[in-house]
Design brief:
The chain has no helices and 11 strands. It has 122 residues and is an all-beta fold.
Length: 122
């Protein structure tokens, strides 16, 4: 079974930047679409951005438009989420997930990481 691990979360001031990583120590990630999701306390899990196995990027919603970027490094078997111009409302647990191709609905993703906490606060 594919096991995903997120890392790179932490505390950052508003306007700052952070890069999250999604990796697998077992299976290769290159055959999967990898999506990033986030969930804040009291809110539903929200799709942020996704990258296909061929590198095509799909952006979801407007709240992070122009501020977040996704990329993948097959040699490192890692998918990254580069976050910039961070706002307090970006505070959430961030998850990566895998399936055959990108979709906005979390229920369709087959594998999930444990999540990493991102806190944006002054």
């Amino acid at each position: 079974q594919l096991q995903l691990v997120e890392s790179g979360g932490g505390l950052v001031q508003p306007g700052g930047s952070l890069r999250l990583s999604c990796s697998s120590s077992g299976e290769k990630l290159n055959i999967y679409a990898i999506g990033w999701f986030r969930q804040a306390p009291g809110k539903e899990r929200e799709a942020v951005i996704c990258i296909s196995s061929s590198g095509i990027v799909t952006n979801f919603g407007d709240s992070v438009s122009g501020r977040f970027a996704i990329s993948r490094d097959n040699a490192e078997n890692t998918v990254y989420l580069q976050m910039s111009e961070l706002k307090p409302e970006d505070t959430a647990i961030y998850y990566c997930a895998a399936r055959s191709f990108c979709t906005v609905r979390p229920v369709y993703y087959n594998f999930w990481g444990q999540g990493t906490q991102v806190t944006v606060s002054s």
